[in-house]
Amino acid sequence: CAARGAALEALVRALCTPSELERYRMFVGDLEKVVSLLLCLSSRLARVQNAMRRIDGNTDAEERQSLNERHQLLSRQREDAKDLKENLDRRERVVSGILAKYLTDQQLRDYRDFVEVKTSLLIEQKDLEEQIKLLEEQLENLEKSIG
């Protein structure tokens, strides 16, 4: 994916104006940031929701309050990140329109595939990171219970 991205950027650099190239670069850079932010916030929100489901009569009021506040904050932040993603999607359409002036149909399909694959890989990477974190927590809990 990185090699495809580099080849695509070289093609855009050769064909587009400097300002169009900069728009392309900003979009690709922001794609990674916004998708990563959205995934991170969703993951953190899911962990808080799981913790909230484990609340029982033994949970003190302070911990309940803390979880509720974290849930509200993360929910707002995730909504803000969704707005950023919608803005990014609009920017992608603008960049795609710019590239359509210069690229062949196949090159344009390659660009769209690159964006889709990059997004998919970011999601897969975040999922793997979450699985690792969960397994590390389970291992730590197991080690504590053993001794």
TrEMBL record:
Residues 57-81 are annotated as: Disordered. Residues 1-147 form the ASD2 domain. GO terms for biological process: actin filament organization. GO terms for molecular function: actin filament binding. InterPro entries: ASD2_dom, Shroom_fam. Gene3D superfamilies: 6.10.250.3120. GO terms for cellular component: adherens junction; apical junction complex; apical plasma membrane; cortical actin cytoskeleton. Residues 118-145 form a coiled coil. Its main location: cytoplasm. It is found in: Cytoplasm, Cytoskeleton. It holds the Pfam family ASD2. Keywords: Coiled coil, Cytoplasm, Cytoskeleton. PANTHER family: APICAL PROTEIN/SHROOM-RELATED (PTHR15012), PROTEIN SHROOM1 (PTHR15012:SF37). Belongs to the shroom family. This is SHRM1 protein. It comes from Crypturellus soui. The gene is Shroom1_0.
